[in-house]
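Recap from last week: sequence in, structure out.
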Amino acid sequence: MMTIPALPPPRFAGPMPDYTNADAQLRDAAEKLEATFLSEMLKSAGLGTPRDAFGGGQGEEQFSSFLREAQAEELVKAGGIGLAQSLFEAMKVGANA
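Predicted structure tokens:
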């Protein structure tokens, strides 16, 4: 049996910036928005839809949303798709206006 090696941790382009409290709140909101977006994209891709062969019934359908949300949050923690950074920058400009 073949063993799959673990992936290295994600590398960031530079040191994480030191955010002020207001910036930290904006960053948190941007990351939550990105996680919500990714959760909806995972839903559209069919992640969490019941399988025909081993369908878990109504319980599986109800709890699949929790799985999608948790996976989307982990995607954001791992660097996401860059949406949070764009949202953060846009909200920061809007907050300073």
